[in-house]
Amino acid sequence: WNSPRHTTDDAVPPGRRSYTRPELQTFFDTADDLVDCEFSKGSKRWLPMLRDSVAFKVGYAYGLRRRELSMLETFDFSPNPHVGKYGSYGALQVRWAKGTAGSGPRRRTVLTVPEFDWVVDLLTFWMSKDGRQRFATAGKSMLLWPTERSDSASVRNFDRSYNYVRKMAGLPDELSLHALRHSYVTHLIEAGYDPLFVQQQVG
Questions:
Q1: Residue 50, exposed/middle/buried by CB under 10 A (0-12, 13-18, 19+)?
Q2: Beta strand residue intervals within the chain, DSSP E
Q3: Ranges of residues in the chain whose predicted pLDDT is under 50
Q4: Quick check: pTM over 0.90?
Q5: How many C-beta atoms surround the C-beta of residue 44 within 10 A?
Q6: Most CB contacts within 10 A, which of 3, 45, 63, 104?
Q7: Could you give phi then psi for residue 94, rounded to 5 degrees?
């Protein structure tokens, strides 16, 4: 009864905090600006940067872990029969979710929620000829994040790209790519969602 309390009982470690809303807006604005900058220069880098910018937003909109994000395929999205207006993007099947120690990956369904319904238009764009299909390798697989070599963009790729955008945005190093997942949880709780629903969404 008189044992000392653990630090984690009282505070979230700084390295695991979520974004503030202004920080989040700054990060996404910077990602978009970098795409525009590379495109205006005629650099080939603009297309991978566009892919990564979209990926970061999708990761935030569904509260995904890095590995879950990198392993998505186009058929992982499906309609939600209860919310027809989201079309083909009412739900996301996460097939490579983190399992318990000694077990394989778990599956879970993440529903598109009103607070993040902007992701529907973003995904519609990405699946079009103006987005994902610009990659010459896109027609050879169902990978959501193709590269010039037909494989999927890796966690390492996303980490490198994320760190570059964060640095250009002037944001602190403590905001890792995983912080987007924490931000998703925080913003759903702030919006009044039941903690159990949020727990089920993020697995």
A1: buried
A2: 77-78, 91-97, 106-111
A3: 1-11
A4: no
A5: 10
A6: 63
A7: -90, 105
